[in-house]
Amino acid sequence: MKQRSLFLLIVFGWLSVVIPMLTGCSPAKPPQHYEQSNMQPRIYPDYIDVTIPVNIAPLCLELLNEASEAITRYSYGDTEIICEGLKARPDIDAWKALTSKSQGQSIQVEVFAKNNGKWVRFKPFHLYVSKDSIDPWLSYRLISPSYVSYEELTINQRCLENFDEACIVDNMLCSTEEGGQCVNCHSYQQNNPQRMQFHARQANGGTFIAYDGQLEKVDMRHDSLLSSGVYPAWHPTQKLIAYSTNRTMQAFHTADPNKIEVLDSESDLILYDIDRHEVRTIEQQPNELEIFPTWAPDGRSLYFCSAHYEYKADSIDLEEITMRAKELKYNIYRKSFDPNTKTFGERELVFCADTLNMSATLPRISPDGRWLLFTMGEWGCFHIWHHDADLWMMDLATKEACPLEGMNSDDTDSYHSWSSNGRWVVFSSRRYDGVFTRPFIAHIDANGHSSKPFELPMADPDRHRQLMKSYNVPELMSGKVDLRPQKVASILKGNGTAVSYQSPYSTKEN
Amino acid sequence: MLLLGLLLISLEADVLYEAQNQNLFLHTPLFFEQQMMKAGGFLTWMGSYLTQYFFYPALGVSILCLLWGFFIWLIHKAFPNTWLPFALLPIGCLLVTIVDMGYWVYYLKLPGHSFDTTLGAIAAIGLVAIYRCLPQRLAYTLPFTLIAVIIGYPIFGFYALWGTLLIGLLATAKKQWTVTVVAAIDVVSVPLLAYHLLYHETNMVYIYWASLPMYSHNGEQYANYYLPYIALVVCTVGWCFISHPLSNRKWVLFGRCGAILLLIIGIIIGWNRNDNFHRELSMSHNMERQQWEDMLTTAQHVKGEPTRAICLMKNIALLRLGRDRKEMLTFPEGSKRPDAPFSIRMVHTIGKQVYLQYGIPNYCYRWCMEDGVEYGWTVERLKLMTLCSLLNGEPTAARRFTALLKKTTFHKDWAKQYEACTHNPKLVLGDEALSPILPYLRDDNFLTSDQSQLELFLFEHLLGTPNNNRQQEELAQRTMFYYRSNHQKLVEP
């Protein structure tokens, strides 16, 4: 009997320790007596007064102010979550209940810190819970911010409603010491996880295309093309993908904080027909460097960027273009597209960045077709390495464009992707350290106004400060990609289907 | 054991220190998680943990010797019929895996390599020792054989397979065929299952060799370096078939003498004693500590023709001490190829420090990042990236790296010292490591590339661009001095 009691005592004792650890928050109560501070707490990530989607995972945070103990209370009405410790990690079920009740309203967050035996209550802040939900999955490439080398890199997907993360592609499954592999440019048709593509470069190279369960590796190399497809854009409804083809090079700054410049010596636009395995040239203008195609949501026009550049030398001179890299200013253009005849119209200027002595890249149009979001930097096309890069928004109805002040930071703000409902944008930012890109999410209202963005929530709020990898090309998806990396690797190891090249698309008279 | 330990400390202190410099162990859950993403992850995690003790080489060697002592005890338990001198043979193999490294210390991708083999061998022989202790009935031996691989493979990788293989062989000797068959099936199938169900970071080609170092570079394999591993496995496989100790005293004596001779010959052949390599390491450690006089002493006593790395570091030391250019002539000059089976690029070895000292932090930072990605993050790279960020006026980036270094065991103080600089940039002006570099920094920027040719780039960049300051001109002239008559020798293959 004694032994049994002892056993039960041990079990209950153990459970009383472990259960609070598993749930993240203990049943602690905020202190009754405290000093009120008129300062807001220093927390990581910076979630102060951000707008969040109703279906987002718990916003775990870490208190950076000096404190021996801390208590964080998330509350709305009579519903509250209390977390003890310097890291606040709300239980996911309690969080879901709280966000569900507070949608359209705001959650108040109070942080209490104990220092030198005294409790301080910082000025509370709010999390505005939008009724607009966000696509439940996000995919990204996890890559070290290196320049030429690559080793371990993956394309991962993360459920935004909780902390589940899964790998879609791992380049190490195809890499050996004899030959490495780089994977990049994953992209989806209309946020559809069943329709995905990405490229593999070098060992077992090719373009991987998944379309409603059909998996294929395509070998897009062709004598008539500058390169295989690079930056992709799925047609919203048809089995067509527009790509840029690029001759890309890298050079390194000796003193500039940007450290590296990635630039194209030549680039064109092509269209790939998935069913016919056929490639045609869309744009191949002399003295123009075309890049970053993207379709209008109705599929009736193709937007892209293009920089006018004339070589002084008689032929392509890599040294010359490197020396004149700052002259590369990209504007945004569009061409109309007839889905029936698959013909394109003439190029027309949409946004003239060079007159502002700037360069515009990565155009992305909101699902309602009204807003054009793009990145602006002083020069060049690879703005993820430019500390001055900012996000700009253009109202396609009025053609007015301006920087998104609420979203931008002092450091790089670049690659962006719209949610299916057009109310959220995910983008890459190096705002916290200038080195590693992290995904940030911001709300965009019907008038194109952005809210303060928040960093992708993590179960351990400190994780992003430890991770030595960047989140590259964040893309929102309406569901989970149902692919295992081993399956993808087995396809990549096989031969790719060769493409045929057809004469360039005719340009119709406007 | 004591003798081996003393030899290690006295001859290889710089190599061992460099092993911890090229290692990183962080006291964070994420670091553990990242190691466990691969088969044998626990082993590399433990290996990285112990490698950091080479910060004090004597401490690291003491731990290593204790582990070797434990290993011999395990051998005695697992193979009771083996004589002691033969039990020393695996220790010799373990020692050679460390002392034959040479320039691999910069290129090996396996975290905690210096301890991994010892820990792995302990795990493998430990499995055999446990198997020996079990009642020799199928009800015990069969489940143990199964569990040994299923649990052992994710933790110890190849070494669990090796241990199970030995169990299978011992069972054969005892005619326990079921155990042998199960062990064989396990060894073949568990890594395959793990590939399909557990791990997505390991190529199918490497699933059986998980947690072993890969001695390959630029697509070429260097098989000689696998010999101590092969000898280690062969030794233990042989012991499985020794059913009783030899009773003939003459043969026992002959066998013991033979084993000791083999051990000595193996260690002598396997030990990398290249003078230039050791001097490079010593000089780079002294450069890190700003001990310029010691660097010059090392460079002065070089035996034979020095490598370019030695000459470059010597030039920097002379300049830092403000010595006359003529004094350079009193030091041995040369461009001996580094003693390695593959071509060594200085950018992967001491080049990052050289770039920093020459006032081009961007290029130092770049190669830290490139090598960090390819060969893994190390203490040295994080420290250099911190210094580069501080010199570039990027305090938030510097804080990112000091935050990580603060999670190490032995580099916390260093991190705190430079974290203070991120909050108060004026501290850089008085910093012993950074302030001498400040005069070499330039505001003018050039978009170019070194093509991995460190010295040629320095020479061409410093002499070929306007606005050089006097110090940089001086440094370039020193390189020029040798370059004039040895142009081709400076091109790294």
Our estimate of the beta-strand percent of chain A is: 35-45%
Category by helix and strand content of chain A: mainly beta
Q: What structural category characterises the helix and strand content of chain B?
A: mainly alpha
Shape of chain B: elongated
The strand count of chain A comes to 36
Largest interface: A-B, 48 and 53 residues
Describe the structure in your own words.
- The complex is a heterodimer of chains A (510) and B (493).
- With 510 residues, chain A is mainly β.
- Chain A folds into two domains: 23-130, Immunoglobulin-like (Sandwich); 137-435 and 443-448 and 456-500, Neuraminidase (6 Propeller).
- Helix content of chain A is 10%, strand content 44%.
- In chain A, strands 1, 3, 5, 6, 8, 9 and 10 form a seven-stranded mixed sheet that branches. A five-stranded mixed sheet of chain A has the order 14-15-16-17-35, with helices on one face.
- Residues 17-23 of chain A have low confidence and may be disordered.
- By secondary structure, chain B is mainly alpha-helical.
- Chain B has a domain at 2-270.
- Chain B contains 24 helices and three strands.
- Chain B is elongated, with a radius of gyration of 25 Å.
- The two termini of chain B are 41 Å apart.
- The chains are: A mainly beta (510), B mainly alpha (493).
- At the A-B interface, strand 19 and helix 4 of A face helix 2, strand 1, helix 17, helix 19 and strand 3 of B.
